[in-house]
Amino acid sequence: METISSLFGAVPSNLPAPSLPQISMARVLELIRPAFTIAVLIGVEELLSAVVADNLSGDRHEPNRELIAQGAANLLSPIFGGMPATGVIARTGANIQNGAQTRVAGFSHAVFVLLIIWLAAPLASQVPMAVLAAILVVVASKLGEFKHAKHLLQHAPNADKAVVLATVLLTVFVDLTVAIEVGMVLASFLFIKHMSENIPAEVDLAGNTSYAGLAKEGVCPQVLFHEAQGPLFFGIAKAFERTIRGAFAKLNPNVYILRLMKVSMMDTTGQRALEGILHLAKRENKKVIFTRANTQVSRMLEDFQEEELLGSDAIVTNTDEAIRTAMVYMNPSICSTCTSRVFSECAMQPDNSRSTNINPDTNKPPITPL
Question: How many CA atoms are closer than 13 Å to the CA of 310, on its beta-carbon side?
Fold first, then answer.
């Protein structure tokens, strides 16, 4: 019968003497790529083990603490000849299944392994591999969330099922680490696909939108309201720009107010999409106003001011300020005959005095810069 010693040799009965490794720049350059790869993989497996422990115990781990502790351990273990280590799902699950509740359980496990090395190494070497295999099968069967898997396969979208099945098959036939990498990549592509197909945005003339600050008495034909939501990134940038261009062509507003409160981030592709909209607005003598952008998005919008695509009044902090700015750029001839009172500012201004200096060629107020 195969034992630990017959396959891997005798279990050592003492710890290696501590020694510092020889470090040179050539060695660092040689090892930096594999070291980075190993660090990423053991970090992923550590957090995966922690998630499994959370599901079994009902607790919640702190990812930063886990990774800092793991990094400190892996910095010190090479001094004693140790290899890079990470949290292991099988041993973590077995620990919790047998009553572990606090950090003392992990500490006790380490002490117990150390005592085995010192006191019972010859006996440990004779443990049959079949015994270890049986323990592994029992632990794995307890870790398997079969009810959850059944519910997932019955109710999840087909794309999610494909990701799960691919990850399971790779875990069984290749390796857990490879399965996690492939699963994360597939899930990322799936997320980008979903985001690209769904552009949550409300684009319509003021009065037809759900902004609570509007009086709802008619529709303002001069102001296009746009409530953008979610990240403005490469996956939806083209569709976003196409939507706004279509609204410009169909509704022909004088002012375009883009509310960005629900835009969590914007990448350079999204920025270029906005740049295309600004160039179109400049050609058609329209005013564009951005409001309620977060810090990251505001910094990217300020680049347009440096390029003179936006004026100093085009980035404001709230929608009320955006509306007051928009009033300056409305066509007074349209306002004088308009019976709607979409904005509170409409009732506060006399007819024929809401805007001045109309461009006779376009019948719109001059806007330089946008």
Answer: 25
Per-position DSSP letters for 245-286, written without gaps between them: HHHHHHH--SEEEEEEEE---B-HHHHHHHHHHHHHHHHTT-
Which among 117, 103, 153 has a CA at the least distance from the CA of 11?
117
Backbone angles phi, psi at 279, to 5 degrees: -65, -40
Residue 366 pLDDT greater than 50, yes or no = no
- The span from the CA of 350 to the CA of 330, in Å, is 14
What residues does each domain of the chain span?
4-143, 146-196, 201-348
Angle between helices 176-197 and 158-173 (to 10 degrees): 170
Task: Find the helix or strand (DSSP H, E) in which 166 lies.
Answer: helix 158-173
360 CB-contact burial (10 Å; exposed 0-12 / middle 13-18 / buried 19+): exposed
Mean pLDDT value of segment 195-212: 54
> What is each CA distance from 9 to 17, 115, 135, 244, in whole angstroms?
20, 19, 21, 70
Tell me the pLDDT tens digit for each residue of 228-265: 888 888 888 888 888 888 888 888 889 999 988 888 88
Distance, in Å, from the CA atom of 100 to the CA atom of 136, rounded to the nearest integer, reads: 18
Task: Answer yes or no: is pLDDT of 288 > 70.
Answer: yes
Q: What is the pLDDT of residue 353?
A: 40
Structure-token pair, residue 135: 């323990």
Taken as a whole, the chain contains a residue count of 370
Structure tokens at 211: 């902004």
pLDDT at 185 over 70: yes
What kind of architecture, by CATH, is found in domain 201-348?
Answer: 2-Layer Sandwich (3.30)
